[in-house]
Structures are given as C-alpha cells and as structure tokens.
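Supplementary Methods S3. Complex input for the 5'-O-[(L-methionyl)-sulphamoyl]adenosine-bound model.
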Amino acid sequence: MTKTQNKKQSATKISASKSSAKKLSPHFYITTAIDYPNANPHMGHAYEKIVADSYARWMRLKGAKVHFLTGLDEHGVKLQTAAEEEHLAPQDFVDEKAIIFKDFCKKLAISYDDFIRTTQPRHEKVAQELFKQVFDQGEIYKGYYEGYYCVPCETYWTQKDLVDGNCAECKRPTQSLKEESYFFKMSKYQDRIIKHIESHPEFIFPESRRNEILARLKKEPLRDLSVSRTSFEWGITTPIDPTHVIYVWFDALINYVSAVKEAPLKFKTFWPADVHVIGKDILWFHTVIWPAILFSAGIDLPRSVYVHGFINDENGEKMSKSKGNVVDPMAVVDKHGVDALRYYFLRAVPSGQDGNFSEKELVARFNCELADTLGNLLSRVTKLIESSCNGILHNAVYADEIDVSASMRQADELMRTRHHNRALDVVWTELHRLNAYVNARQPWKIKGEEERNVVLYNIAENLRILSIALSAFIPDSAAALFTQLGADAEKQNFAAAEFGKGSFNIKKDRALLFPKIEYAEKRHFPLDLRVAKIEEVKDHPNAEKLFVLQINLGTEKRQLVAGLKQWYAKERLLGKHLIVLCNLKAAALRGVESQGMLLAADDENTVAVLEAPESKPGDRVFVEGYDTHGPFSTIDLEAFRKITLKANHENHITCVEYGNARLKTHRGEYVKVQHVSAGAKVR
Ligand code: MSP
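Predicted complex, serialized as structure tokens:
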C-alpha cells in the first residue's frame, strides 16, 4: 500500500470516528451498590467494583465526562450489631471500616470519582427530603408491621416467603418482628413499573434477570413496603416522626441521588444515572423498590441496571467463613498483582453470570494470556526496535500491513451492550493475529532497513492501539506498555486508536511486564482449627489438674476438658479468644466429655494458650500455602501428636508455625502465644 493510499484510508476512519463521537452522550454516571461495612471487603465487592471500573474507564477513553460512584451503606441492624460486638460506637466502627474500604478500592485501581457514605450529612439530608416528599404525596402512612426480618439481608419477609423457616434469599434464620411502622404505598406502582420495564428493554441487563422480575411482578400483587423502624436506633430519623428511623434500604437506595444532589448543576448533568451495577441478590430492590420511590418522588428512573452474578469458590460453592473457603481478594492482589485479578475476573467470568474463583486458573491465564501473548509481544518488539533503529520510530510514514483499529469499534459495541468479557476476547483475537503477523514477517531476518521499520512500526502501532482498549481493564499494565513503548500515556484514548497516530521512543530500562507465576498446588492441612470464646471455666469434678470449659465457636457451643489448672487462674481464661482443635475424636476424660482440644504451647518451663484476641468465635485458622478448607476427617490424639506446630519469635511477638508458615485467622490475625520460648511445642 502506498503512503497516499494509507493516508486516504486513515482519513475515512477518522471521519467515521468523528461521526460516532457526535452520537456519544457526553456524560456517563455509573454506580456500584454501596457495601455493608460490617466486615472487611470480600471477593464479591472486588468483582463488582472491577466490573464497574472497566465500564467507567472505557467511557472516559471515549471522551465522556464520567461520574463513577461507589461507597458504603452504613446504617441498619447488621451494622449496629457488628459495632456492638467490637465494643465500638457505630460511627467509630464505620469510620474505621471506611478507611479499609477506600484502601481496598485503591489497591484494586478503582477509579471512582466519589465515595459516598450514608452517614454523611449530604446523604442524610437528601434521604430525609425524599422521605418527606413521598409522605407529602400522601404515599406514606402509619401502620403496624408483623412479620419476619432477615438481618444479614436487611429484608422483610412474610411467613409464606420463608424457605424452611429461613430467609428466602440467604437461607439464614430470620427474626420475628412486631412493631409500629410507616408504610410506603408501593403497591400503587405495580403496573407502572411493569410498563416501564416492558417499554425499556435496556432497563435490566441481562435479559434473564428482566424476565425474572417481570414474571414476579405479574404473578402476585405488590405489597406496600415498611419503611421505618422503631426497635433500633442506628439509622436516619424520619422527618415526620422522631421515634422512627428510615428503613435501611429506603435510605441506601437514595445514595445514588444524594451523591449528585448537593450541587443542582451536578444533578442536572448526571441524573438519571446511566447504569447501576449490582449483584443478583439485590435485583428486586433496584428494579422494583427504587423505581417506585423515584416515581413517587417525581424523579426520572436510572437508564439501566446491570446485574452481575456471584463469585463462588473454585468448586462453585458460596464462600463463607463457616465453610472456611473464603479467599481474600487483597491476599490475591498482594501475591499476583492487581491486574492478574482484574484480568481474570473480567475475562474469565462471563458478564451477568456466576463465576468460580480458582487461583489455579488465574495463574494459568496469567501465564498463557498475559505473559505469553501480551508480555512476550511487547518484549520482542521493544528489543527489535532498540536494536534496529536505536529505539525510535516516528509516525505517519509507514503503510499499514495489519490494522487492528476496527476491533476497537467491535469492542465498543460489546461494552455498550455490557459484554466486557467478549470485548476482551476481541482484544485477544487481535493480539493473536498480531503475533501471527510477527511470526510471518520475521522482522529480525529482514535486511532492508525501510522494510524492517515498516514491520516494526506495524507491530508497535497495533500493540499501542490494543493497549488503549486494555487500559480500561488492566490500567496499570496498559500504562507500563505505553511507558515501555515511549508512547505518551496521556494521549492514549479512543481518538488516538487509529493506525498512524503513534510514535515510539523505546524506554531503556524495561522490567518484564508479566513475569510468570509459579502455581504451587496446595497441600492439605489436616487440622480443623477455630477461634473459640471461653464462656465458662469450672473445676473438673474428678481431677485436680483439669478444667471443664464451655466454649462458643460462633455457630456451635462445645465442652472441653483442659489440663491448664496448674498454669492459669479461671479468670485468665474466661472471655478469651483461644484456638481449639475441632476435629479431634471426642473422648471422656475422667468421666467428662471433651469435644476437641484447647491448644497450648509447652516449652518445658511453662505452658501458654494459643490466642487470637482480635478474631471472632468460629473464625477459621489457616496456614499459608496449605488447603485449610477441609473437609476434615476426625483424628485421634496419636495422629495429632505427629503434627508439629511450634512457637517462633518474629517482630517481637511469638507466633505459631507449621513448617515455615505461620498460623493466621481468616481475619488476617496471626495466632499468638505469650511467655514461651521459641521452639515451644503445641500440644
Ligand atoms: N448494602 C447493600 C447494597 C445497597 S445498594 C443501594 C448490599 N451490600 S453488600 O455488601 O451485601 O453487597 C454489595 C454488593 O456486592 C452487592 O451488589 C452484592 O450483590 C455484591 N456481592 C456480595 N456478595 C457477592 C458475591 N459473592 N459475588 C459477587 N457479588 C456479590 O447488598
């Protein structure tokens, strides 16, 4: 192709992109659900934020003015209880958690523009105003609520909703509730909501969720919603009655409006939101309750609700502390880097569906797709440009032998229709095509400088264009790609994704972009160790040296017999959070049953119990590098004695080790033991 032909082709492409730029709405308001900070952030939170972030970044690449909102849902019974358990005032508790959640966002490279907390005055004010507005409409009335309440879901249920007497959503036990309450006349909006969903096919994605909601709405009459509580205090007081606080979901949903309501111009610019990104468990709240509130308050509905699936463990089971199969997203980021996790989530989990988190698969994809297909291409082309033309290649003089820029439009269409994993498939198809081009043209064998430079420019330029797309998904790696290529990162947006716009000045010191990861198959850890709270200590009726303990393991209570009388006064054990071996065969010790063993370290001078004061009853204890998820078979004392756990001093504390790895609770706290020397054996 001649240079003139090349220019002509570029010119048509530019005008095509100009006309599509005209169609682009200049503003894009995207939100995530606001998380309950009753515990630390988990995989589901990470997944949702990463997905939303990729859409926010994509729209920024296209030149849209993006407002990306995330934050915390800080009121409700669940929060109040969590704070009480930590002996903290709810506000202090959520303030501490907010730091952790913000840090979490930072570590995941979440490019949010605003972080809302429902305890902020800016939110409380708007929540009260909206409540009042709905009341003034005559759509809030006083009544009496009698039914069931699920605290983990903060949801009301009737008797017939319950599944085996438990919450229909999370299957956990509910509380029966009888109290005075204000009700919102949600029933009034049933037909209007159905009509809205039917006439706005893009309102709920994916379609299966839309069908699910429509079917439910058409099946039975919508009930009015209880929107206030009197039996607890940790909420926003209703503007109509100081003895009631606003129901936490009514309060929480309003965050999407309150975040932009402070400044009228901001509201005018960004509302209605373009997309609420949420998980499947909160679909009803966002596509039925929220529209009803907005209809009543006379506010436009959000344009769409994008519903993602759930992240489960590698076997497809729900992650939960009691099962001990929780994987901490921060530990994954610390171990493999943020883009390893982002890439894995965005590529491996089909949009809108559930996904299993498997570290093994993450490592396999990292090594094959990021390291081999992408990292290797970068390292080949940078080396070749360096040796062939001293690292410098200017634009606009080379014909396009291969041009991937059309794939940007394909990916854009997939992003528009919320298929981010397929957008990444498109990028990878193009990366394979580019690798095939390199292998076919073999620039290292080309003797003529001009011809060689054409090929090198083609490789670098197409890699640059694909990196623009990648910057929405793996932003840190894309930035490193631009830096290594010496392409101005600031300018790498949609408009620059045209062949011929890039110039290269290869950076001299280049770190390998995706050094391969070794995946060590986890070995099985045979001990079911858990944190227990000591609730009662009594003397053994028939043995001088033994105590009988009643312990709380979160989900169950047990009795233990422990030979600690010589070393501990009862009060020193009472209320402590200690470590118990739970899969030891139960045995009668001098006629009293012991259902497990309290662990202690013995250095032959003294004996000290293993502790985890910051952790909660029932928390699992795990060992890095080992599979501590169970299931555990029951072991006898002899088998336990063959397993060596010993104390070791590190950073002024005495930890407990198995092999060379320290014992840690799921809360991330190291198991400690005081007053024993290093090497003391756990027995
Ligand atoms: N506070 C409410 C949301 C209020 S929005 C006005 C809430 N909080 S949550 O912390 O329980 O969940 C926050 C988000 O994480 C929700 O969208 C939820 O669906 C999502 N996830 C929670 N667990 C999840 C997985 N295991 N996998 C993927 N996402 C899941 O609900």
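Residues 523-682 form a domain with the OB fold (Dihydrolipoamide Acetyltransferase, E2P) fold (CATH 2.40.50.140). The first strand starts at residue 27 and ends at 32.
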